[in-house]
Amino acid sequence: MNQKIVGKHENDVNGNPAGGQTTGTGILVNWQDGPLGRGIDRKDPNGAFVEGVIAAAIDRLQYYQDSKFKCRENEVALMNLNLALATLNERTADREKRDVEGTHTV
After folding, report:
1. pTM of structure
2. Which pLDDT belongs to residue 1?
3. Judging by beta carbons within 10 Å of its beta carbon (0-12, 13-18, 19+), is residue 72 exposed, middle or buried?
């Protein structure tokens, strides 16, 4: 069964991501609106990041793996979600090294 997911993504006047929502039955994700900034100008998040949503899916699948529903398919899904999370963390580390993390600079 595929769950219908609806994304309503927003952009600022410069075409940069500016929040939005993704919904589905039992799902409501309010996405981060704007960059967090750097240094003393750093703000607290006001919405979800993709990394957090992936971490939530990992948490749920790990719950299944720790139960009678443990299976190879969950294991493979966990492996791929962990790879996705690691890849996004590598991107963040690279952006931090270039002093552009927390900004819209590509």
Report:
1. 0.93
2. 72
3. exposed
Tell me, yes or no, whether 106 lies in a domain. Answer: no
Burial of 31 (0-12, 13-18, 19+ CB in 10 A): buried
Domain count, the chain: 2
Give which of 51, 33, 52 is closest to 43, Cα–Cα: 33
Residue 55 domain-assigned (yes or no): yes
Q: Which letter does DSSP use for residue 11 in this model?
A: E
Contacts of 106 by beta carbon, 8 Å cutoff, 6+ apart: 100
Does residue 67 fall inside a structural domain? yes
Residue 24 and residue 53 share a domain: no
| Identity at 6, one-letter amino acid code | V
In which domain, by residue range, is 38 found? 1-48
The pair of three-digit structure tokens given for residue 91, joined into one six-digit string: 């991107």
Angle at 102 between CA 21 and CA 91, to 5 degrees: 85
Q: Would the pLDDT of 5 be above 90?
A: yes
Main-chain dihedrals φ then ψ at residue 88, nearest 5 degrees: -65, -35
